[in-house]
Description:
The protein is α+β, with helices and mostly antiparallel strands.
Amino acid sequence: MNKFVIAVYVENRFGVLTRVTSMFTRRGFNIDALTVGETESPAYSRITITMSGDGYARDQMINQLRKLFNVKKVELLEPEQSFTRELMLIKVKNSGQTRQDVLAAVDIFRSKIIDYSADALCIEITGDPTKIDAFVEIMKPYGIIELCRTGIVALERGSGSLLAR
Protein backbone atom coordinates (compact mmCIF):
# COMPACT_ATOMS: atom_id res chain seq x y z
CA MET A 1 0.00 0.00 0.00
CA ASN A 2 1.19 3.47 -0.88
CA LYS A 3 0.49 6.69 0.96
CA PHE A 4 -0.67 9.64 -1.05
CA VAL A 5 -1.68 13.23 -0.39
CA ILE A 6 -4.71 14.90 -1.96
CA ALA A 7 -5.37 18.66 -1.84
CA VAL A 8 -9.05 19.57 -2.02
CA TYR A 9 -10.17 23.19 -2.42
CA VAL A 10 -13.73 23.64 -1.20
CA GLU A 11 -16.11 26.53 -0.67
CA ASN A 12 -15.66 27.83 2.87
CA ARG A 13 -19.18 26.87 4.00
CA PHE A 14 -20.88 24.99 6.78
CA GLY A 15 -21.16 21.21 6.22
CA VAL A 16 -18.61 20.83 3.41
CA LEU A 17 -16.07 18.96 5.55
CA THR A 18 -18.79 16.53 6.66
CA ARG A 19 -19.71 15.82 3.04
CA VAL A 20 -16.08 15.16 2.12
CA THR A 21 -15.32 12.86 5.06
CA SER A 22 -18.66 11.05 4.72
CA MET A 23 -17.75 10.13 1.15
CA PHE A 24 -14.67 8.28 2.46
CA THR A 25 -16.77 6.46 5.05
CA ARG A 26 -19.43 5.41 2.55
CA ARG A 27 -16.79 3.88 0.30
CA GLY A 28 -14.91 2.14 3.12
CA PHE A 29 -11.69 4.13 2.84
CA ASN A 30 -9.73 5.31 5.85
CA ILE A 31 -8.18 8.76 6.15
CA ASP A 32 -4.68 8.61 7.68
CA ALA A 33 -4.46 12.36 8.30
CA LEU A 34 -6.69 15.35 7.63
CA THR A 35 -5.98 19.06 7.95
CA VAL A 36 -8.27 21.93 7.05
CA GLY A 37 -7.74 25.67 6.90
CA GLU A 38 -8.67 28.83 5.09
CA THR A 39 -6.67 29.56 1.92
CA GLU A 40 -5.26 32.74 0.39
CA SER A 41 -8.89 33.42 -0.58
CA PRO A 42 -11.28 33.58 2.41
CA ALA A 43 -14.03 32.14 0.20
CA TYR A 44 -12.21 28.77 0.09
CA SER A 45 -10.74 26.26 2.50
CA ARG A 46 -8.11 23.69 1.68
CA ILE A 47 -8.49 20.15 2.92
CA THR A 48 -5.29 18.11 2.84
CA ILE A 49 -6.02 14.40 3.03
CA THR A 50 -3.42 11.68 3.49
CA MET A 51 -4.57 8.14 2.86
CA SER A 52 -3.17 4.72 2.06
CA GLY A 53 -4.19 2.55 -0.83
CA ASP A 54 -3.40 1.34 -4.29
CA GLY A 55 -3.71 3.27 -7.54
CA TYR A 56 -7.33 2.22 -7.95
CA ALA A 57 -8.30 3.60 -4.53
CA ARG A 58 -6.42 6.83 -5.20
CA ASP A 59 -8.06 7.38 -8.58
CA GLN A 60 -11.51 6.48 -7.28
CA MET A 61 -11.27 8.94 -4.39
CA ILE A 62 -10.03 11.76 -6.61
CA ASN A 63 -12.86 11.17 -9.11
CA GLN A 64 -15.49 10.99 -6.36
CA LEU A 65 -14.18 14.15 -4.67
CA ARG A 66 -14.41 16.05 -7.96
CA LYS A 67 -18.12 15.19 -8.18
CA LEU A 68 -18.98 16.67 -4.78
CA PHE A 69 -20.95 19.88 -4.58
CA ASN A 70 -18.88 22.78 -3.12
CA VAL A 71 -15.58 21.23 -4.32
CA LYS A 72 -13.66 23.69 -6.51
CA LYS A 73 -10.49 21.71 -7.23
CA VAL A 74 -8.89 18.34 -6.39
CA GLU A 75 -5.21 17.60 -6.96
CA LEU A 76 -2.94 14.68 -6.19
CA LEU A 77 0.29 16.05 -4.73
CA GLU A 78 3.17 13.99 -6.09
CA PRO A 79 6.01 13.63 -3.53
CA GLU A 80 8.73 14.81 -5.92
CA GLN A 81 6.73 17.91 -6.91
CA SER A 82 5.54 18.95 -3.45
CA PHE A 83 6.67 19.21 0.13
CA THR A 84 4.96 18.19 3.34
CA ARG A 85 5.23 19.32 6.94
CA GLU A 86 3.68 18.28 10.19
CA LEU A 87 3.62 19.80 13.67
CA MET A 88 3.79 17.77 16.86
CA LEU A 89 3.62 18.74 20.50
CA ILE A 90 5.09 16.09 22.78
CA LYS A 91 5.36 16.01 26.56
CA VAL A 92 8.13 13.84 28.05
CA LYS A 93 9.23 13.12 31.59
CA ASN A 94 11.86 15.48 32.98
CA SER A 95 14.44 13.99 35.33
CA GLY A 96 17.99 14.87 36.23
CA GLN A 97 19.24 11.61 34.72
CA THR A 98 17.69 12.10 31.27
CA ARG A 99 17.35 15.89 30.87
CA GLN A 100 20.62 16.42 28.99
CA ASP A 101 19.88 13.60 26.55
CA VAL A 102 16.43 14.99 25.82
CA LEU A 103 17.81 18.52 25.37
CA ALA A 104 20.48 17.19 23.00
CA ALA A 105 17.80 15.47 20.90
CA VAL A 106 15.74 18.68 20.88
CA ASP A 107 18.76 20.55 19.54
CA ILE A 108 19.66 17.93 16.92
CA PHE A 109 16.08 17.78 15.60
CA ARG A 110 15.83 21.59 15.55
CA SER A 111 12.81 21.53 17.80
CA LYS A 112 12.19 23.68 20.84
CA ILE A 113 11.10 23.45 24.44
CA ILE A 114 7.82 25.35 24.87
CA ASP A 115 7.14 24.45 28.51
CA TYR A 116 9.43 23.38 31.31
CA SER A 117 8.43 22.03 34.70
CA ALA A 118 10.18 19.97 37.35
CA ASP A 119 8.62 16.75 36.08
CA ALA A 120 7.88 17.37 32.37
CA LEU A 121 9.19 19.01 29.21
CA CYS A 122 6.83 20.03 26.40
CA ILE A 123 8.51 20.08 23.00
CA GLU A 124 7.37 21.53 19.67
CA ILE A 125 8.72 19.97 16.49
CA THR A 126 7.89 20.55 12.84
CA GLY A 127 9.11 18.80 9.74
CA ASP A 128 8.63 15.93 7.38
CA PRO A 129 6.49 13.16 8.90
CA THR A 130 9.48 10.77 8.88
CA LYS A 131 11.40 13.27 11.02
CA ILE A 132 8.48 13.42 13.46
CA ASP A 133 8.32 9.60 13.59
CA ALA A 134 12.06 9.40 14.28
CA PHE A 135 11.79 11.94 17.11
CA VAL A 136 8.96 9.95 18.73
CA GLU A 137 11.11 6.79 18.63
CA ILE A 138 14.01 8.61 20.28
CA MET A 139 11.74 10.01 23.03
CA LYS A 140 10.10 6.67 23.93
CA PRO A 141 12.84 5.54 26.35
CA TYR A 142 12.61 8.85 28.24
CA GLY A 143 8.90 8.44 28.92
CA ILE A 144 6.32 10.05 26.66
CA ILE A 145 3.51 11.47 28.77
CA GLU A 146 1.38 12.81 25.94
CA LEU A 147 1.64 13.77 22.28
CA CYS A 148 -0.50 15.46 19.66
CA ARG A 149 0.15 15.62 15.90
CA THR A 150 -1.52 17.99 13.45
CA GLY A 151 -1.51 15.84 10.36
CA ILE A 152 0.20 16.75 7.12
CA VAL A 153 0.02 20.07 5.34
CA ALA A 154 1.43 20.15 1.81
CA LEU A 155 2.08 22.54 -1.06
CA GLU A 156 3.26 22.07 -4.61
CA ARG A 157 6.73 23.35 -5.38
CA GLY A 158 7.13 26.48 -7.49
CA SER A 159 5.17 29.71 -7.75
CA GLY A 160 1.81 28.41 -8.96
CA SER A 161 -1.33 28.02 -6.87
CA LEU A 162 -3.67 25.08 -7.31
CA LEU A 163 -6.62 27.39 -6.72
CA ALA A 164 -5.55 29.73 -9.54
CA ARG A 165 -5.48 26.93 -12.14
